[in-house]
């Protein structure tokens, strides 16, 4: 990790451009355009050809049969199934509080004004399948959609030579997913946006993916709605001299291990903590199962901003607008009102970021790359729309 001691204009420009979320890659853009056009033209045939070319999997059927989903319960450790059910209940109880209500105003004689809240008819959720399995992402996408009243929830996830991870299938069943298709990448986004012989067209696509998925979502937006253009995972931690360096390092690494492009950022006014965290990061990296990924992330994107005051810490973090923000300061909740930009906030030393990623209930599909300045976590509101109406008498 590198230490930046002054927030110079150059450092500020670097942090504002730290993510490739909104950068255009002309080659990738053209490749995705070609994939989308081919899927529109050749439909299911294109999906099977791309699966063979990109995933090295030959598919006879795109749809995952109900029997395979049921069989997955026998392949997953009972403790994992129990944990997924507990997480699902926490996610459900939290998101039920988000439901928007219709309203009607009759305060003026002869005038009726109102808004009708209605669910989207069909949504597609994308679940990554690259270097790790993400059953938690299934829950975080599908449960809010279910609470909103979406009638058809379609899930796509990249095919695997040995079959889709059974925990992902179990999570889909628990969350109430209606249909599952083993297709990934830009071709999956194209299929959801335009429909094929097998895969139905949806009204909105949600869920994170790689650069091809992100670019495909960008290109189909307008034909369908999308949740966001997701970039690499990131964590920002506000910590003072009271924080535990070992715990701070572990939480930084909890995001660094996701992706070589992931961002791990600490803002502190304690030089001793900064040095302690750097030492702990090095020691813990040596023990991580995903140390090769985490090491690249820390080396290229890990940064510690060392400032003088708590107010400077808060100002710096609001400029960073991180996806996940931990506040490990004295009386952490007292600073919540001063947080303007963050996807999700974790208060105190015991509210570690992985708690929110997997179990607590708030959504883990969050704005990245500084887009928390103007966008929010995925929620029930993403699966509802509002129809205004008006009536006047003579």
UniProtKB/TrEMBL annotation:
InterPro entries: Ald_DH/histidinol_DH, Histidinol_DH_CS, Histidinol_DH_monofunct, Hstdl_DH. Its EC number is 1.1.1.23. It comes from the Bacteria. The active site is at 323 (proton acceptor), 324 (proton acceptor). GO terms for molecular function: histidinol dehydrogenase activity. NAD(+) binds at residues 126, 187, 210. Its cofactor is Zn(2+). Belongs to the histidinol dehydrogenase family. This is Histidinol dehydrogenase. The lineage of its organism: Bacteria, Bacillati, Bacillota, Bacilli, Lactobacillales. The gene is hisD.
